Amino acid sequence: MLKKYLWAVLGLAALVLVVLLALALWPTSTRTIAAGAGSGSPGLVAKGKYLAQAGDCIACHTAPGGAPFAGGLPLASPIGAIYSTNITPDRDSGIGSYSLDDFDRAVRHGIRADGDSLYPAMPFPSYARMTDDDVRALYAFFMHGVAPAAATPHPRGLVWPLSIRWPLALWRKAFAPQPDAIAFDAHRYADMSVARGAYLVQGLGHCGSCHTPRSLTMQEKALDESGPAYLAGGPVIDGWVAVNLRGNPADGLGAWSAADIVATLRAARNASHAVVGGPMNDAIVHSTQHLSDEDLNAVAAYLKTLGPSADSVSTFKADPATATALGQGVNATRGAELYADNCAGCHRSDGKGYAQVFPGIAGNSTVLSADPSSVIRLILHGSKLPATGTAPSELAMPGFGWRLSDDEVAQLASFVRQSWGNQAPAVDAARVGPIRKAVEKEMAAQAPAAR
Q1: In the predicted model, is pLDDT for residue 450 greater than 50?
Q2: How many CA atoms lie within 13 A of 199 on its CB side?
Q3: Which of 138, 196, 240, 441 fits 298 for a cystine, CB–CB 3.0-4.6 Å?
Q4: Given phi > 0 = left and psi -120 to 50 = alpha, else beta, which region is 235?
Q5: In 10 A of CB 192, how many CB atoms?
Q6: Phi, psi torsion values for 278, nearest 5 degrees
Q7: How does pLDDT run across 303-347, given as a tens digit for each residue?
Q8: Could you give the CA distance from residue 195 to residue 209 in angstroms, rounded to a whole number?
């Protein structure tokens, strides 16, 4: 009887596998885009270059020291490293043989020219909102505005069976939107500037890819403002928390003006609230600083329409008690002592810092994030502001991990999260050790080989 039961279970499992395989391998039909007039015209190529900057294509598709857009950059994911592809017009290792339709299927549908599905590290669920005209312009740029470059094979970053591609088709068919079904409708928005900002944020800018939480099956919980989780803060990426971009007054952008948002996207810093660090540096250097003033203002206008998320655990109400105590030399806790010794010289006893140089800590949305990973990482390893066209100084904060224990880092992080009116959960020392190890591993990988 048991043997019959086992055979029945095995037979059912085999049937399910066959059905899933059939669903995955069933071809996906997509609408063919008609090529427009002047497909290689200088004007269309220039438009495509601007769109490629808005999409930050170069950041993922260029390896350190490699040719622009030639791929080979390892992208960290929960299942291992995924190496970006060569999207130069090289015919052997790039996309030089791609038709406009092949290009569109890859960019908006997540389907390679050979029919295999792309990993969603390529943000095709966001790019699905792009218009046909913008796809044509991007294609013109990559075919006529980018130098072809041969790509050398790179090591496989995923172990078997995670490297098998056919299950990706199931994910794509289950979770990726169809472009025609979600074609961007500017008339949903009363203001045309807000509509333009929505198009950039939801589509080419693919902001939700980092700043929206994901389900267990790894799809974003929302792709636009119709879902309350949209841009409510994403996972930890390269050790940094993708912050909440909604209207929460403490851990979001509720206290930011539109001008603050524009300044940050243009120069990686603003006068009132924060400076940028971590992976967002690349986005600003390669993408947002190159956007027009009109588009940056549109992005800011759209973000300011987003209401607060419902699950914020932090608050801020300015309170002078901490500044008064520090100013009088009263350091009542070990965290206060550590702040006075390591931080007050730049961030001041009132936690307000110095505009566009050393960010304020009081009311700082990164400090008040529900996940303290970024604060811990900053204390351990520091950070550096990128140089931009309007702010060329690469200002840096040093790390203190070399002289602070895990417990001291936790106490210092807790102090800054609970002073000057900041109210965020305390940090446990157990959170520090794994981040310290990750930082040390990164530093070892970046260090030149010993001679």
Answers
A1: no
A2: 19
A3: 196
A4: beta
A5: 12
A6: 70, -150
A7: 999 999 988 889 999 999 999 999 999 988 999 999 999 999 999
A8: 19
